[in-house]
Amino acid sequence: MGLTSAIHVKRIAADPDDQQLLEVGESILVLKGPQGRINRAVWGALNKTIISAGEDAVVRIWDTENLSTDMLVEAKYQLPNKT
Fold first, then answer.
1. Does the pLDDT value for residue 73 go beyond 60?
2. Residues 1/34, Cβ–Cβ less than 8 Å
3. CA geometry: angle at 7 spanning 9 and 14, to 5°?
4. CA dist., res. 74 & res. 83, Å (int)
5. CB of 82 closer than 8 Å to CB of 45
6. Segment 12-59, tens digit of pLDDT
7. Is the dihedral of CA 15, 16, 22, 24 positive or negative?
8. What are the structural domain ranges in the chain?
9. Is 49 exposed, middle or buried (0-12, 13-18, 19+ CB in 10 A)?
């Protein structure tokens, strides 16, 4: 842990003729902030957010509606004590 990770969002065209000007493999959005490995990143409701969680035990909700890198929510997860 300790290294900053990033989520890269790529554009995938349904039609090969609809590739526009993006270079192959070019990211349209890069979300930075998580420390260590990202364990999961999924699209939220209506594909307007991305929810991520990783080694740093923080769940983040990112606003992607306007290709923004704004984070909406960041919540630290605390594991319960085992007795």
1. yes
2. no
3. 20
4. 28
5. no
6. 665 666 555 555 567 778 888 777 888 888 888 888 888 888 888 888
7. positive
8. 4-76
9. middle
Q: What is the pLDDT of residue 23?
A: 57
Pair of tokens at residue 58 = 């923080």
- For residue 40 the two structure tokens come to 């999961």
Q: 3-state SS of the chain?
A: CCCEEEEEEECCCCCHHHCCCCCCCCEEEEEEEEECCEEEEEECHHHCEEEEEECCCEEEEEECCCCCCCEEEEEECCCCCCC
**Distance (Å) of CA 27 to CA 9, 12, 20:** 6, 10, 14
